[in-house]
## 1
Amino acid sequence: MAAADRELKAAIAATRFGLGAKPGEIAEASRDPQGWLKAQIRREGADQPQSGGETTARRIADLREFQQQKREVKQEGAANGGKLAPEARDPVKLAQKLLRDDTQTDFLSRVQLATATDAAFRERWALFWTNHFTVAAKNLQTATVVGPYEAEAIRPHVFGRFIQLLGAVETHPAMMIYLDQVQSVGPNSEMAQRAKGFGRRGRFGGGFGGARLQPAAAAAPRRDLGLNENLAREIMELHTVGVHGGYSQADVTEFARAMTGLSIGGFRGPDGQIGEPVFRDVAHEPGQRMVMGVRYDQHGKDQSAAILADLAGKPQTAKFICGKIARHFVADDPSPALTARLEKAWMSSGGDLARVAEALIEAPEAWAPQPTKFKTPYEFIVSSYRAAGAQPQAFGQVGPILTALGQKPFDPGSPKGWAEEADAWAAPDGIVKRMQFAQGFAAQAVQGRDPKALAAEALGERIAPATATAIARAESRPEGFALLLMSPEFQRR
């Protein structure tokens, strides 16, 4: 390989496969661009953000304690005619703030990892799967567990077999909370049969603690009100075979019935089960299931596990997800040849994600010189810090600007995750806000350094002569660095 070609591939390795080049990174990758990327693949998974290491179970226990405290304060206020002393309200406000602070710390730690890591391809690969298996911080309940969810269910499995990752994600408390699985009860289950002679207070499943039932004057008619199909639908539509994968509404319903019983331990069980995934036989819908033409005679939790395993192994799943990988890393409209290479690696290896990552690195289509992917706000902010060789030190340095740019931390807004296409991020208002960030960040980040040298480190052979000239002619060093950040080469990867 000629030296010039190797230099260009090194720049592509750091900016397209990675998260933007840090000073010295392109030079390191230039020795062997493909080998440099492959060395970042490891069976033990992605790196973990240093956020304190609190588990999902601990966060759920804290949240339930806060909710109990809030109920008690509300009851006290009702008993006093609606009046509540400030000293009674303050502890609740403090507890709520601490829970929100936990979420912000989780996100800041993730950004700090992304801006500093020497294995940015490994981190980008993990972020792809985090977005594929979205749990959005739509409320305090889900916000407190998003960080631990990534650490526990996703990062350890991103270079293992897909079935391992899929199983860890779909049975994790965060996913079950987000998609209402904790409320799902089989309409003919033992729990539903018991409920026939009782009224219901709240919802089937009782949140984290199981069904909460109370006597009723008349038996409620048995209906499918306890069955929740959200998780089953999103597994099929978004996580495995895709919306065109050949399943029907009847398949979704049958899959949802198979998953009844999957829930989360609450205060009614042993202390060790609070916030832990559990299986409640009493809530499981009895009988065999038929999903996508396959009959499942397994009982209990083995039934949904068998369906998950079959979904993981279907060629529709390989086609759908490999298309997403190609779209994320290479182009909004990737070549069929690239997707076919990834599918072949997936199917021949039994869904070995390390092998799929290697196939991506080996694909010639992934090394096309012309950058076509427009950076998301998160990618833009992270790559800006990496170009400066800096790290954010507070959530306030990244959270507000990401929200303003339309990528609110931990909150895509739907289970579909963040959009990949340029149209979602390249609107004029978004470009103006990126420019405002670039100007403010450059004023703080350059600190006497030569923007021409920073540009060479950030883009290598990808920098266009016109961009290099504009940076060299800038009236000040901060202006030169801001021009780098807003250049077409930097905005795209």
## 2
Amino acid sequence: MLKRTPERTSEERLSALEQANRIRFARADAKRDLKSGRLAIHDLLMDPSEELKGAKVEEMLLAMRGMGRIKVNRIMKEAGISRSKTLVGLTHGQRDRLVRTLGCEEL
């Protein structure tokens, strides 16, 4: 038997849309900041904002200057991280290995 999606009020739909837009804009801003160097990948990995916690690690690495798909795949493989892993889903060990692999340890 198929389940139907719950009926939502227009206020609930509008609220969900606003939240989705806030998350999309925050991710786009983070990518721009990574590319320009205004945001360090170390800071993003160690303390992602609430809007960025669900962002894919691969997506954020690809946003960095000088990072292409092949290099990102190699880095993620070396760090033992799945392509589907999100920032909040990283274990402490995965986060530490990724930081070491990227060579961006905080001094």
## 3
Amino acid sequence: MNRNSKIIPNDTSILPKENVLQWAQNFENVVFLESNKDTQAEQEKYGEIEAVLAVGAHQTLSCEADNAFEKLKDFRKKHKDYLFGYFSYDLKNDTEELRSENPDHLEFPALYFFQPKKVILWKNNQVEFLYLDAYSKEIEQDIRAIKEVHFSPKNSRTKCDIIPRLSKEGYYEKVSSILKHIHRGDIYEVNYCQEFYAENCEIHTIDVYQKLNQISQAPFASYIKLQDKFLLCASPERFVKKQNNKIIVQPIKGTARRLANRMEDERLAKSLADDPKERAENIMIVDLIRNDLSKNAKKGSVKVEELCKVYSFKQVHQLISTVVCEVDKDENDIDIIKSLFPMGSMTGAPKISAMEIIEEEEITKRGLYSGAVGYFSPVGNFDFNVVIRSILYNASKKYASFSVGSAITSLSVIENEYEECLIKAKALKEALSS
């Protein structure tokens, strides 16, 4: 199916993104991806778009982990168009002989993609409406409807009592157990995560997303609505991007908080850049990604463009590396993603052993957290984030959840790892507060 295009100037007074997102609530399937390009130009050197919205499912694929990548391969072959959706962390079970038996309180499908009826793209100071031909007559009426939206934040008090799934003492015990694995030589590094949750929680999802995005201004922000399930994401991390025949992976490992005092803030950033433990974490994941990329890359094309570079966001400083390669034009996109999945920064090294220990030591199913959200384009490119710094919400169950973690290595001090988790949780807690 072809798409009909209409381009208008990007006049935020006429079509502000907040109004477009409010209008999108008329649909059961919504994916909104936002780069915050004006505030994150340095962080998003490979960015091409300001934002994109996909609504209305013309065709859908929803499945659990069993044979999920092959099902997506077939789906993409049939629908050579825009496809928006996500890979949950538990698709690891489709890449290796692994399992996910911890409790799942959110109940998202393991994999979900849809071919949208309507795509709205913000790029180059323009807004482009890209509608499937069958729906192209609705462009003008949709523009009028969006102009008539009067969005204003509800400013309602959220009814969320946020509780840690694991006590501080329980966290110390779990990380001590992981350190025993490391000292025995079972693994070098594990990304260990803990969940914070709220039951009987009622939130206005657009308000919470806008607040989270304002706090973080992350380059890979996203808002997803799938019927009664929502993702409100302020991710600073790219999982993988394909740009023609170039593959770009940008792992984050290494975190420091921001300070109001400029000189002290710069000192913390420099300290992060020079920290041997943080650099070691990052370099281990870079080596893992180089190995994963080599499975599909042209021989000799895997390169590290940036190693342990400090990028500064509103809430935190991060160490980010950029690893790239070239692929042949006949390499299958889904195979490339599968060879990298899940993101090494959210697992550890060696990867399979780390995922086994994660399943053993974590007490809830990760689900969409530490998976990836993004899209495939009609011309064969794709771009996916890493789902971190995110709130997951099941509106029917009134259950909200967010998870945070850190990399555990032989150099880890448990108290410092716990503190890093709290730093990462700060913006999420603030977004869920009144």
## 4
Amino acid sequence: MNAVYTAVATSLGDGRNGTARTSDGRLEVTLATPTEMGGSGEGTNPEQLFALGYAACFHSAMKGVGGQLGIPVIDSAVTAEVGIGALDDGPGYGLVITLHVELGGGISQADADRLVEAAHRVCPYSNATRGNVEVTLEVETA
């Protein structure tokens, strides 16, 4: 693969508690372990950042695929839920993800399902997680 764009970000401090920033200076965040994991919760965390990226990327993939399939993507939203927990079968931690897709414009459930499955095949985040992370797709039409 030939990358057409490379994002660069640096984490400072002790990873979950510190700061992180992009090389272009457009994004700088304070990091803090969530209270559910014993931290202060007074900053963002890697799971929130991953959820933001996945939601935006999947939404973009859905819009692109919709154009190719002739399925209009109107009044749409993608919400990504990224959970973290200890692995059942060994040391370390893993992720579990649910993508909740909302589609308006009177799209049929069949077209909505076809659109979301197609987006899941082309989205870079979906391709990166496939086979490694459980991803559940939920589709709601209005």
